[in-house]
Specification:
23% of the residues lie in helices and 10% in strands. The chain is α+β, with helices and mostly antiparallel strands. It is found in: Cell envelope.
Length: 115
Amino acid sequence: MKRKIIAAAVVLAFIGVPVAVKLSKNKTVKEAELAKVELRQIQPTILASGNLVFRQEVQLSSEVIGKVSEVLVKEGDKIERGQVLLRLDPTPTAPKWRSRTPAGAVLRFRSSAPS
């Protein structure tokens, strides 16, 4: 008879302890965000790390000295040979370079690389 009581206590312990532990844990309520069904655009985003490199770097230099009055291109724009990139102010500010700068001079892209 003692053995039956001990066996029943062991079986009850194996079953009862896990059930008691599960029931005694704090039940956390998970909140859900509810929304009406609607058509929306999905905005794709990519998180990446690395280095951005350019395919070709071009160094620009001017044969004349002057104050830039207008820049006609933005960084990253594709340009072609002969395209006007900027305009110089036609009003000379110093007599030493007045004769070297034509009025309203422009800077054109001239590439030494074959196009």
